[in-house]
Amino acid sequence: MFFYKLHRSRAENYELVLGICDKELAGKELRKNPKFMVSRDFYCDKECNEEEAIKLMKKCTIANLVGKNIVKLALEKNFITKENLILIEGIPHAQFFK
Questions:
Q1: How many domains does the chain have?
Q2: What does the alpha-carbon distance between residue 20 and residue 86 come to, in Å, rounded to a whole number?
Q3: What is the CATH number of the domain that holds 17?
């Protein structure tokens, strides 16, 4: 299961930004310096399963992914490649833009 939140950018083209994370990472600070927080304000509006997460990743124009499960799913469904991801204290993080 995942937590996600959709954001609409204020840019002229109104990008649809998806923040999605593995449920167990919500609200956790992954690194202190520089700080990286899996902010509930950014990632946690609703819950979804894998099928819903795939639909959300298809729908959005920008995505920010945190967690082993969501990054694995994004890799399997070709939303990202291994070159798109970094590890923050061992936790996968990736972004993509369409």
A1: 1
A2: 16
A3: 3.30.1860.10
Digit-coded pLDDT (tens) for 53-84? 999 999 999 999 999 999 999 999 999 999 98
DSSP letter at 35 equals: E
Please state, in angstroms and rounded to a whole number, the distance separating the CA atoms of residues 64 and 51.
Answer: 17
DSSP state at residue 26: T
Give dist(CA 88, CA 91) in Å, integer.
5
pLDDT in tens, 23-55: 999 999 998 888 999 999 999 999 999 999 999
In three-state secondary structure terms, 83 is helix
User: 50-59 and 68-76 are packed helices; what angle lies between their axes, rounded to 10 degrees?
Assistant: 60
Confidence (pTM)? 0.92
